[in-house]
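Lecture 7 notes: from sequence to structure.
We start with the chain below.
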Amino acid sequence: MSRLVQVHLPADAPPGAWTEHPGHLDARPPAPAGLYALRAETGDEPRACVSPLLKGLNMLRDARRDGLPRLWSGQPWTREFYLHFHRLVRDLPAPRLLVLSPPLRADCPGLEEFLMLYRPFEAELARRRPGVRLLLENRCAETPDEPQPLAATAADLVALGRVLDRNGLDLRLALNLPRLFQAALGHEQPTARATEEILTPLRHCARFVAALRPFPDPEAFFGSQALAHAALVRLREILDDGRRRFLLPPDDPDGFPGLAALRRAGFVPALGDED
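Predicted structure tokens for the same chain:
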């Protein structure tokens, strides 16, 4: 069974539902009404970096390329990144999920190097804000000639799962499905064969997948209802282990017909706030 807890954008959330709030470098402190996720800086949109929450955090403000924040650029950056998170939620209950993004390969060449930078962040969070679950979301550059993130393809995620296992870290994966396909195919529409080749390797890291960011409209993405259904069924088979996972809001949430498609593929709602 593949169980999903839906996480909503605040404007669309029914009473008592989980919500996801922005936590990027220009964000204001969130105002959650209950359990919530915080999506930290993704590094793929320009930031002004003039928030008062960044006062004194010179590494965070200055580590930008063409206005785009550079993530995980060194241990001083990691310390300031934690301080920004602390300031953002200082007067709030801690988020139950904190969604992080990987660095670019140009800034951090390997997974082991990234985890050396990440480890102090996890340790400090466990000490000062216990109970926050940390997720790393795969990202992908818009074009092949742009700098690519460290965790983009299915092979990257499988490798990351193995490294996490060896290092005994609590970090888990948020699987951004559109970005996963874009990393493999660019903006080409998937075929049945390509879909199988992209999804099947995920069986090797399925136990590390704690959340999904879905296709906003699976039928439009795949070009046919049959292929969209087959892809989601295959994904459900890979994740069919009884674990509860979180369904994060899609990057383009307009209308979001994808939830019904997930249910038709065999995903079921999960209730409650504990595993």
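Points to note: The chain is about 35% helix and 15% strand. Residues 200 and 238 are 7 Å apart (CA to CA).
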